[in-house]
Design goal:
Keywords: Cell membrane, Membrane, Transmembrane, Transmembrane helix. Helices cover 54% and strands 11% of the residues. By secondary structure, the chain is mostly helical.
Length: 131
C-alpha cells in the first residue's frame, strides 16, 4: 500500500519551529530548577532557556512579517482562504499542493520548485520531453 505524501505550508512549518523553540526553552529552564544547588549551572540553563524563548519571538516576528507579503488565495479543494509563499506551497487547511506558476502545472509537486535552479532544470527537461 503506497502512502500518500502529506505536505505542509511553509508558514505552518516555521510557526511549528518557533513553538518547538518555546518548549525547548522551558525544558532547559526546568533543568535549571532541577540543578539549583549548582548556581553557575542553574544560571547558565536559565539564560540558555531565555535565549531559546527570545529566538522564538524573533522567528514569530519574522514569519509575521513574511506572512503579510504572502499571496492570499482560495484553495480549490477546501475553498478556504490560505496564503502562499513562493511558487509552490501547500494549503494551510487541507494540505493540497498549490502553485501560482502556470509553467509548473502538470509537474509533480516538489517544494524544490521554489529554487530557481531546480525549476529551470525541470522546465528544460519538460521541453526536451515535448520535442
Amino acid at each position: 500500500m503506497a502512502d500518500k505524501l502529506v505536505y505542509s505550508s511553509k508558514i505552518n512549518k516555521i510557526r511549528s519551529f518557533a513553538l518547538i523553540l518555546i518548549f525547548v526553552g522551558f525544558a532547559v529552564m526546568y533543568g535549571g530548577i532541577l540543578s539549583r544547588k549548582i548556581e553557575w549551572l542553574m544560571l547558565t540553563l536559565f539564560l540558555l532557556g531565555v535565549m531559546f524563548i527570545l529566538l522564538s519571538c524573533v522567528v514569530y516576528f519574522w514569519i509575521g512579517m513574511l506572512s503579510t507579503k504572502a499571496v492570499p488565495i482560495i484553495c480549490p479543494s477546501c475553498e478556504k482562504p490560505t496564503k502562499m509563499l513562493g511558487r509552490v506551497d501547500a494549503c494551510m487547511h487541507c494540505k493540497q499542493p498549490l502553485t501560482l506558476d502556470k509553467d509548473l502545472e502538470g509537474f509533480e509537486f516538489d517544494e524544490r520548485y521554489n529554487k530557481r535552479k531546480f525549476r529551470n532544470e525541470a522546465k528544460a527537461t519538460m521541453k526536451d520531453d515535448q520535442q
